[in-house]
């Protein structure tokens, strides 16, 4: 019984370590498909774009107003998590604060209308490059909220990932939504297995 208890403890500690360890950035292929549900905003499209990441259809929000792209264009990008950026990852824009502010806005885009989402993107463009595009009153309001200081350390781990082109001018930097983090699913399934082990050991006892 002691050996089983020790094994269970080691397994739990190992899985906890997996959930707390920063994920390493991975290189992915990004392809811009079309403007998706984005809408015109001061001469450009703002909102969710349709892209492919390693061939998988994905929604993306551009945080990079100053770089132009075209339909069908592909490039290599580094996929960064919150842990990567907090650890000093080489994103296109400097400062973890910018990504936390943008992450807070991005967390609200899924439930927003296309028009509202465009205003949020106008704010995000200015968070990354102030003055890069005109802000309507609503975009200015979103910008003011995001940069008020309340979201400078916002943890966007379960909200988005950052796809930074490599080299940096080969494409746009995108923010993409993330599903439930795999380590959490692994931890949950691991606990289920451990409960099974404990149940078996009890029946044998």
Number of helices: 6
| Uncertain residue ranges | 1-23, 180-204
Mean pLDDT: 84
What's the order of the H and E elements? HEEEEEEHHHHEEH
Q: What's the count of strands? A: 8
Look at the helices and sheets and give the structural class.
alpha+beta
Number of domains: 1
Percent of residues in beta strands? 15-25%
The neighbouring-strand order within the major sheet is 1-4-5-8-7-6
Biggest β-sheet description = 6 strands, antiparallel, barrel
Measured as a percent range, the helix fraction is: 40-55%
- Principal-axis shape equals globular
How large, in whole angstroms, is the Cα Rg? 21 Å
Overview of the structural elements:
By secondary structure, this protein is an alpha+beta fold. It has one domain. 40% of the residues lie in helices and 21% in strands. It is built from six helices and eight strands. It has helices at residues 2-20, 82-86, 96-106, 114-128, 137-146, 182-204; strands at 26-34, 39-41, 44-46, 49-53, 56-62, 74-80, 160-165, 174-177. The strands form two sheets. Strands 1-4-5-8-7-6 form a six-stranded antiparallel barrel. Helix 1 (2-20) packs antiparallel against helix 6 (182-204) and helix 3 packs antiparallel against helix 4. The termini are close together. 35% of the residues are buried. Mean pLDDT is 84; it is low at 1-23 and 180-204.
């Amino acid at each position: 019984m002691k050996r089983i208890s020790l094994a269970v403890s080691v397994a739990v500690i190992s899985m906890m370590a997996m959930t707390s360890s920063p994920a390493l950035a991975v290189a992915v292929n990004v392809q811009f498909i079309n403007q998706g549900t984005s809408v015109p905003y001061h001469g450009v499209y703002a909102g969710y774009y349709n892209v492919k990441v390693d061939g998988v259809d994905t929604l993306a929000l551009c945080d990079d107003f100053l770089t132009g792209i075209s339909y069908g264009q592909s490039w290599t990008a580094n996929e960064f998590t919150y842990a990567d950026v907090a650890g000093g990852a080489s994103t296109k824009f400097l400062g973890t604060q910018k990504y936390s502010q943008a992450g807070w806005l991005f967390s609200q885009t899924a439930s927003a209308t296309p028009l509202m989402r465009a205003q949020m993107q106008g704010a995000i463009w200015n968070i990354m490059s102030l003055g890069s595009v005109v802000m309507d009153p609503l975009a200015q309001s979103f910008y003011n909220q995001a940069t008020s200081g309340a979201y400078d350390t916002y943890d966007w781990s379960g909200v988005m990932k950052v796809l930074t082109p490599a080299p940096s001018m080969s494409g746009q930097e995108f923010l993409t939504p993330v599903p439930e983090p795999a380590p959490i699913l692994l931890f949950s399934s691991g606990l289920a297995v451990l409960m099974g082990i404990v149940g078996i050991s009890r029946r044998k006892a």
